[in-house]
């Protein structure tokens, strides 16, 4: 080794340079035998210096390429020049332990004083770079698969607005195939006046950074190849690839959603109009009915008082029924008015002590001595006072009204609360209700007992249920015929749309 090296001009300097170089380097003669290998190269391939010197360069190559390399080495020495080895091909080195790794090789010819040609090879292990490239390719393949199979249209443009990617969903949405639209300005997909405004907007953003859509998303209008215009949701993301700025837009056709929104708007307007008409109708009808009804009631009361001695038993019973039905009619009219107003009038919510409310309801209803009413300790809740009083009054009065046991028991219970709801119940040991009637009893004007036997308008439970639901609560019923019923209801702690 020393003999060959010393014959190279300035050999000591070259020896020092190779020994101190951080890159792996070696020198071979025209026969392809290694005459010098520096420490980084020895570490890269796992050899000692004496194991490599005077061995063919093919020792450092995989066995499958050694034979072919001999021919290429011979060709190189015909016209030696400084160049990269294996341009356009992947080169591999072989470690002493047999493992292979990717390398890049640069060749530089050297001339001895005797005129012999040597070659210096600089070798770089590019395994990490190849792995990164492979990972990048795999990532790009996965991304392409995602983009190509995405339901939404995905379009990529450069900073001048030129389309570079146009996924299959975009082709279906806009009616262009990718080869037709690629290379054209994105404004092609916009109707006037947005088309004329786009380039100026993009230029202004690149200059000032002022953005109206990027990273925000908004509803815009798109233009198909056939000239039809459609509404769409557009969101744009910016990315930096090297020194290039790219923009990716995700587009979704919202034509059906817009039609649905317009339909819903029309329906809401119709419902609002119908509700207003219904409220006006209920008010007018009740007002017009109450005046003659009061007159009938007054006349009936006058007849039954002034002509009491003229009526026989049958006549007195007929007058009693007449007066009773006039009062019932008045109750029905009031019930219709109350029912129509629930949920239409904003109610003032204040803190209410339910212990006081329920006590006042029981005192007002004055249950007979045969019925015992017990009450749990109740909380203070925020609600409209009259509304919660009506809820408890309707439930307790029903329990009293329909009680059929000589020892009646009614219990107003508080079954606790979770983070969202209060939970209450009214339990009785009355006649109970058959399951087939559970839904019916919450409908307007529905009663299970004959009205001439038990005075009822059939409005109370319907009012109670609608009131509870207006506050976001729920009513449930458990009942066993002959044993009794449990009416339970929840009230949201923070009802929506209440002031």
Automatic annotation (TrEMBL):
SUPFAM superfamilies: ATPase domain of HSP90 chaperone/DNA topoisomerase II/histidine kinase, Homodimeric domain of signal transducing histidine kinase, PYP-like sensor domain (PAS domain). GO terms for biological process: regulation of DNA-templated transcription. Its EC number is 2.7.13.3. Keywords: ATP-binding, Kinase, Nucleotide-binding, Phosphoprotein, Transferase. Residues 284-495 form the Histidine kinase domain. GO terms for molecular function: ATP binding; phosphorelay sensor kinase activity. It is an enzyme of class 2 (transferase). Putative oxygen sensor; modulates the activity of FixJ, a transcriptional activator of nitrogen fixation fixK gene. FixL probably acts as a kinase that phosphorylates FixJ. This is Sensor protein FixL.
